[in-house]
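Pilot study result, target chain (301 residues):
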Amino acid sequence: MSIPNMIRESGLEEYMLSGHPACTGCGAALSLRLVLKAAGKNTILVIPAGCSSIIAGIGRKASINVPVLHIAFAAAPPSASGISRALSVLGKKDTNVLIWAGDGATFDIGFGSMSGAAERMENILYICNDNEAYMNTGIQKSGATPTGAWTTTTVRGREGRKKDLFSIMLDHRIPYIATASPAYPLDLMNKVRKALKFKGFKLIHILNPCPPGWRYDHNLTIEVARKAVLSGAWILMEAEYGKIKLNPPSSEMIESRPIKVAEYLLMQGRFKHLTKERIDEIQRMIDEDWNKLKIIIELQK
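Predicted structure:
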């Protein structure tokens, strides 16, 4: 798609204002802008503690032009549930209730309340802004930190593996789950629009590169995000009522990936300590994940 057509498709309205204090090249700021453009003006945003609490601002320094509720780390799902139910009582069916939560609030501190809201099938779109660590408080490991990654609490590289949020939410039997990336903006926006058509709890998981936390030059954010997908480290997919579907370009990569994971990892300072053997181990993990996914998709046919 040409650039002019892409601009027309995304829409001209802006609900994230200029002058916000996000780091230069912040993947979260890029994605939040796209999410708000897709959701539109009839949106209420709930943000638990994290980088986006600072980016959004408050009062005269607010940078988001829709109503925003800043809330404690674990309290976003119950707060959004209350808002959603109050809107229902008032008969306001055209207002979207969105949670924009980091990986710490999603994978760890707020996991229980998120799971509860999903189990109750609250009418909420939950968006996980995943930059793979607690970036706002100094780059500490979270449940989303990938194998081998440096953080201030995993200085030799994270042992163990990142939680599989997509599979966890599949087990909640919610109507819609998707992954997305700021490197594929129309895919991200279309998934937001699609999710909002479903009644009940929906979740979109966005991998958002973080220049200071991932240790790369700020002008490489989109390239880093794209290589995460092309290496197979991040898979673009969605599931409607449990049936999984891959999205381009991931849908063309089930047999092989265009680049090796080393090309993605070595762009980032957080992986610079990895040996060739460790990188080969991570490549094997990715290949195994793809093989399992291929089997699941075949069984669903």
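One observation from the pilot: Residues 3-300 form a domain with the Rossmann fold fold (CATH 3.40.50.970). A full batch analysis is planned for the follow-on phase.
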